């Protein structure tokens, strides 16, 4: 007689399926990353190349028109302007800006640090501030998670309370839970995604889609930093609506100032 086969325990079957399912999950994860890589490369690669060629063309035009200016000096000026912008200086007018590391700007940076958004438009430049940022984040990030967990618990209690009240009124607990959950979801969408773009459009001059994009990137804690709330970061009265546009205008204004000085030094004639 053949020996009786014993059935595998459920734990053994689950253990045997864990490796293939994990490999499948990793494959799907890598495939999703490959999809994002291809799409972003296609959509943004050509625009980046066009921008780089335009910048190089303008730089060479400046060097050809003003032969007294050599390329290393111009590159040094560009590096100084970029570093000054990173340090919070504003070169868009003749007045001295108070910079971005004021009270509101520092508060904005603290919030973006402990919420792990990290827009990247502000970063510490001194070693003391960098060391403090490490310890501040080590304590602040878990503290922020505790606060969010408590707020989420309170919101869940509110939804459950509304559900029980509606269930007692309609005598249908299932429908009451669905209605309370849908109301909470709709309120969250309105409060955090759909209504803020209207405020950003009024305060920052953005379009509704730009404001919606900023709200989503902020809520998802991605925080690219291409869009920031300028009123909290700059004391300039013109308040640029995009962080990279601020740097672009700064470089252009510095280039215009350089051209003016060169023209003045040569009696207004172009070389």
Give a structural overview:
GO terms for molecular function: outward rectifier potassium channel activity; potassium ion leak channel activity. It is found in: Membrane. Keywords: Ion channel, Ion transport, Membrane, Potassium, Transmembrane, Transmembrane helix, Transport. It comes from Rhinopithecus bieti. The protein is mostly helical. The chain has a domain at about 100-235: Helix Hairpins (Orthogonal Bundle). It has helices at about 10-65, 70-85, 105-115, 125-170, 175-195, 195-205, 210-220, 245-265. About 10% of the residues are buried.
Which CATH architecture of one domain is right? Orthogonal Bundle
The CATH first-level class of one domain comes to Mainly Alpha
CATH topology of one domain: Helix Hairpins
- Largest pleated sheet: none
Summed over residues and divided by their number, the pLDDT gives a mean of 75
Principal-axis shape: elongated
Beta fraction: under 5%
Give the beta-strand count.
0
Give helix and strand order, one letter per element, not per position. HHHHHHHH
Alpha-carbon Rg, integer:
28 Å
Portion of residues in helices? over 70%
The tally of helices reads 8
| Low-pLDDT residue intervals, each spanning 5 or more residues | 232-241, 259-271
Please report the distance between the alpha carbons of the first and last residues.
105 Å
Q: Could you say which structural class the secondary elements and strand pairing correspond to?
A: mainly alpha
């Amino acid at each position: 007689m053949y020996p009786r086969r014993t059935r595998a325990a459920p734990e053994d079957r689950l253990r045997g399926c864990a490796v293939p399912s994990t490999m499948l999950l990793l494959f799907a994860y890598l495939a999703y990353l490959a999809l994002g890589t291809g799409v972003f490369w296609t959509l943004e690669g050509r625009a980046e190349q066009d921008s780089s060629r335009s910048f190089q063309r303008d730089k060479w035009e400046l060097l050809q028109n003003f032969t007294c200016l050599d390329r290393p000096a111009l590159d040094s000026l560009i590096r100084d302007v970029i570093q000054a912008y990173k340090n919070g200086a504003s070169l868009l007018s003749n007045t001295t800006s108070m910079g971005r590391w004021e009270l509101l700007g520092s508060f904005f940076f603290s919030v973006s640090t402990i919420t792990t958004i990290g827009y990247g438009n502000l970063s510490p430049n001194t070693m003391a501030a960098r060391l403090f940022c490490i310890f501040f984040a080590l304590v602040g990030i878990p503290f922020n998670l505790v606060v969010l967990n408590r707020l989420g618990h309170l919101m869940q209690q509110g939804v459950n309370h509304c559900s029980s009240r509606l269930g007692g009124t309609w005598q249908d607990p299932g429908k009451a839970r669905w209605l309370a959950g849908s109301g909470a979801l709709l309120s969250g969408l309105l409060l955090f995604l759909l209504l803020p773009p209207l405020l950003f459009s009024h305060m920052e001059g953005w379009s509704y889609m730009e404001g919606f994009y900023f709200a989503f990137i902020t809520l998802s804690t991605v925080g690219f930093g291409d869009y920031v709330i300028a009123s909290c970061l700059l004391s300039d009265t013109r308040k640029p609506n995009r962080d990279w546009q601020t740097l672009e205008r700064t470089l252009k204004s510095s280039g215009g100032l350089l051209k003016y000085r060169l023209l003045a030094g040569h009696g207004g004639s172009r070389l």
